[in-house]
Amino acid sequence: MKKYIYIHGTEAAFTLEINGVTRSIVFSGGRVVGSLRQPFYWTNDVAEQKAIEALSCFGTLILPEDESRAKADQEIVGLDEYGVDEVEQELGFLEVGSHPEVTKIQEAKSVLINTYGLTHDGLLNKAAILGAAKEVGASFPNLK
Questions:
Q1: What is the pTM of this model?
Q2: 6 and 51 in one domain?
Q3: Domain termination site, one of 57, 83, 109
């Protein structure tokens, strides 16, 4: 699985053509870097990865996670690997991957699909959804 970061704005959507099929991808969520949120997109589809990497803005506005972190960390000092500064971490202001707004299992499934780039496959019941959430580092503290 690969994670891509969009470094200019709080959300971005792109239309890709993959094997003759048009797909939309949405960069959303993300870690806070300074005062900005860097939205991201996960995919394990190799064809989709190649299409993203073929975009003209790849390498400037869209970066693979490891490169975007290195770039952000050069600009901002004191952030941990999730972009949380030491003060926020100590005071608990930001819990990375936490979605307290989610209270229903269908909402959790939508967050996993739309924010973390997972597919409907395998998200068939509550146990599978919670397992997938744990795998991508998401949590739903108010899920009923």
A1: 0.46
A2: yes
A3: 83
Pure H helices in 1-144: 46-53, 65-75, 86-91, 105-114, 126-136
- Residues 9 and 77 grouped into a single domain: yes
CA nearest neighbour of 82 among 70, 71, 96 = 96
| Residues whose CB falls within 8 Å of the CB of residue 35, separated by 6 or more in sequence, listed in order | none
| Interval 25-84: pLDDT, tens | 888 877 776 667 778 888 888 999 999 999 988 988 888 887 545 455 444 444 444 444
Quote the CA–CA distance of 118 and 19 in Å, as a whole number. 20
Q: How far is CA 59 from CA 2, 18, 49, 65, 71, in A?
A: 15, 20, 13, 11, 11
- Provide the number of structural domains found in the chain: 2
Contact of 97 with 116, CB cutoff 8 Å: no
Same structural domain, 17 and 76: yes
Structural domain that includes position 126: 97-144
Long-range own/partner contacts, residues 102-107 (CB < 8 A, 24 or more apart):
102/140, 102/142, 102/143, 103/142, 103/143, 103/144, 104/143, 104/144, 105/129, 105/143
